[in-house]
Write a structure and sequence with these properties.
The chain is 8% helix and 43% strand. It is mainly beta and 207 residues long. The strands form three sheets. Strands 2, 3, 4, 6, 7 and 8 form a six-stranded antiparallel sheet that branches. A four-stranded mixed sheet has the order 5-1-13-11, with no helix packed on it. A three-stranded antiparallel sheet has the order 9-10-12, with no helix packed on it. β9 and β10 form a beta hairpin.
C-alpha cells in the first residue's frame, strides 16, 4: 500500500560528543618535545556521560547506565548494540596524530522516549577517568581522576599523582561541560619511569 512503518524510538536528531587531549608543561605551553623516550606511551581513558536537560549538576550519569535504566531493552539494543561508551587515546607525548586532534562519540540520540513514555532531551559531556604510562607496551603507572560537579555548567577533577589537571589558563580551577579540550600538566622532571636513557649517564631528565 506504499506505507512505511518505523519504530518510534527517538526523533531523527542525532548528536555527537567531541573531545581532544592536550599536554602542557608547567608554564601552560603545549608540549612538543618527547621528553619521555620512544618506548614510553601515555594513554588517557575517557567516558561518555549524559543527563536529561534541566536536571542540573547532579543529573550527570555514565551514559551506559543511564540508557540501560531509561530505555526499554528493545530500544537499547536497537540504539546501542556493540556501542562503546568509553574510548582511549594513546601515543608518545609529542604524537600530534593522537593528541591535539578531535575525537568523537557519534550517533547519539538528542532525545529519547523513556520507559515512562516521556520524551527527554539529552545533553552529553566527555570526562577523563584515568591516565596510564606504558613502557614497552606494559602499564607501569595508573592515575585515576574523579569528577566533582561545581555548578550546572562546570566541573573539576580531583586526583593526585604525576599529572595535574589544567583548565586552560593560570588561575582557572574548573572547566565548562561544553569545553571539548582536556588538558593535563606534566612537569617532566617529576615523571619517574624505570628507564635507563641511552647517553644520559648523568640523568639529565630526572627519570
Amino acid at each position: 500500500d506504499g506505507n512505511i512503518t518505523m519504530v518510534n524510538l527517538t526523533n531523527t536528531l542525532q548528536a555527537s560528543a567531541a573531545f581532544r587531549k592536550t599536554w602542557v608543561d608547567s608554564d601552560g605551553s603545549t608540549i612538543t618535545e618527547n621528553y619521555l623516550g620512544t618506548d614510553v606511551t601515555l594513554q588517557v581513558n575517557f567516558q561518555l556521560q549524559v543527563r536529561a536537560a534541566g536536571s542540573g549538576a547532579g543529573g550527570w550519569t555514565e551514559a551506559e547506565d543511564y540508557f540501560q535504566a531509561n530505555l526499554t531493552p528493545e530500544a537499547y539494543e536497537t540504539l546501542f548494540t556493540n556501542y562503546s561508551f568509553t574510548q582511549s587515546i594513546a601515543g608518545a607525548i609529542d604524537d600530534t596524530s593522537a593528541w591535539n586532534s578531535t575525537k568523537y562519540f557519534r550517533n547519539l540520540p538528542s532525545y529519547i522516549k523513556n520507559t515512562a513514555d516521556q520524551e527527554v532531551q539529552l545533553q552529553y559531556r566527555v570526562v577523563e577517568t584515568s591516565i596510564q604510562v606504558l613502557q614497552e607496551g606494559q602499564i607501569v603507572y595508573t592515575q585515576n581522576l574523579d569528577v566533582v560537579n561545581d555548578t550546572d555548567d562546570s566541573f573539576h577533577y580531583t586526583t593526585t599523582g604525576l599529572f595535574t589537571p589544567w583548565y586552560g589558563k593560570q588561575g582557572e580551577d574548573s572547566r565548562s561541560n561544553s569545553d571539548t579540550i582536556h588538558y593535563n600538566q606534566l612537569t617532566t622532571t617529576d615523571l619517574t619511569v624505570e628507564k635507563v636513557w641511552d647517553g644520559d649517564a648523568d640523568n639529565d631528565y630526572g627519570t
